[in-house]
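Minimal example, chain plus NAP.
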Amino acid sequence: MKAYVLNKVGNADVLKISTVDSPPLTNNQVRVKIQTIGLNYAEIQSRKGLYGWAPKRPYTPGMEAYGIIADIGQGVSDLEIGTKVIVVGQFGCYAEEVVVPASQILPAFEKFSPAENAAFAVQFMTAWVALFEICRMRATDRVLIQAAAGGVGTAAVQLAKALGCEVFGTASQDEKLEHLRKLGVDHPINYHTQDFVACIREKTAGQGVDVVLEVVGGEVFRKSLEVLNPFGRLVVIGFASLNLNKLNPWSWWKTWRDIPRVKIDAMATASQVVGASHLGYLLQDTARMMRVWDDLSRFTQEHGLKPIVGHEFKFEAMADAHRLMESRQSHGKIVVHI
Ligand SMILES: NC(=O)c1ccc[n+]([C@@H]2O[C@H](COP(=O)([O-])OP(=O)(O)OC[C@H]3O[C@@H](n4cnc5c(N)ncnc54)[C@H](OP(=O)(O)O)[C@@H]3O)[C@@H](O)[C@H]2O)c1
């Protein structure tokens, strides 16, 4: 089968297709023939050697995909060959086939296209856990979503708007603000050309927000705390602005400076809650993941939500898809069709 095998870290040029044996299938595993792959920012970081959850090289990257069950191992009783499914995991999906434990298989949505099915699981589950489970988001909350035009961002915006929240969403370009307006963001803010703290103070008559979803780090994280109300909840789920270069001491210092940090005494004084979450732990806890999946699927169907697919590539153009995500020109989810 064809697969991308990461032999070394580097820029997008290191992504090359190889012909490899199909992975063997053992007990309690499922083989899925992949149709569409969903890209995640963590795959950019793991290609650069900056993602702590990546396996030892060489390996095939790819955290999620949509496809059809091609084979099932002994011990798998509740899945059938030919069923359309979503696969989630930490790696293996940049390939024509992937073999995963049955616990990493989720039912595909009939009403979604293959691209939408490949775009849903990682970003909506991440946004759901952060907003509903950690921040206990309520309809009366003012919610700030950083990098709101991206994959996780557009998922988070949809969840918060469907609940009835007033939503502030940031992005680095005015074209992305247009996408945010169409998605229902009440206050789109270009955080490169505007001071988002001042904008929020102005729109809230000097108050702030009750919930922040933070994915950027550095100054964006520090300023997010400035606009968090007493009893407000901020959850960190990423640090997209960090770009550690092991050969560049300046980048070591910048990375150290920009990793989000809080002082408990300052949080106590301001009465703020700051937390963080990583989907990797959810994938290891099948019972918790299925509870999240059931709640999320029900909410998605009740509110008619769909992931925003912004860009579609062919399998051979994986490097271009990575370059687009790194360039900050993308909006919504990037998917790759086999
Ligand atoms: N904790 C978890 O389990 C989990 C799971 C999934 C994703 N994440 C995190 O959530 C974030 C979004 O992931 P995603 O896959 O949906 O990607 P994405 O949002 O589609 O793309 C990343 C976005 O980050 C913003 N960004 C800010 N500073 C950047 C920089 N210096 N370089 C590049 N981009 C920068 C860009 O938006 P603007 O140009 O508009 O600023 C860019 O579009 C990432 O930080 C990712 O690591 C965490």
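Residues 40-42, 122-123, 126, 147, 149-153, 171-172, 176, 215-216, 237-238, 240-241, 277-279, 325, 328, 330 surround NAP (CB under 6 Å). The radius of gyration is 20 Å.
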